[in-house]
């Protein structure tokens, strides 16, 4: 972003809330590792990953917290064209270090750094439908309901609700 525009924006309006920023503004190390396996009709897998902030603060005076996530799943093929899955997910996000070094509105809970971070756990149940033959052979539609089972937010944050996800994929 142009430095003149950034300064003008800060002087006239202040910063947008931390969650509305387009990036962290710091150099970050993104890590991840995954494993998957299968035997007959059963498949399983796990992934872990995280974000390590490599700087103490960005040019605006703060740094987002480090983050870690883990998920594990199992799936069973009920039929050649249908499988069901169960997944567990956990995420921890560190709080914001520091605060804006310029004007900010501080009129809502999202304007305060102490209202960011926490730990979350979810359970998901899903299904995958695969077209076995014809024009759309190899195409799949997957759906999953992800339900929060535990939340430990820092400060004041919105209550979480379940999420329905759907996706379409194809093999070629």
How would you describe this structure to a colleague?
With 172 residues, the protein is mainly beta. It has one domain (3-170). The protein is built from one helix and nine strands. It has one helix spanning 3-12, and strands spanning 28-39, 42-53, 62-63, 67-79, 82-93, 97-98, 118-130, 139-153, 163-170. The strands form two sheets. The chain has a seven-stranded antiparallel β-sheet, with no helix packed on it. It has a two-stranded antiparallel ribbon with strand order 3-6. A hairpin with an 8-residue loop joins strand 7 and strand 8 (139-153). The longest helix is centred in the first third of the chain and has 10 residues, at 3-12. The chain is elongated, with a radius of gyration of 21 Å. The model has no long low-confidence stretch (mean pLDDT 91).
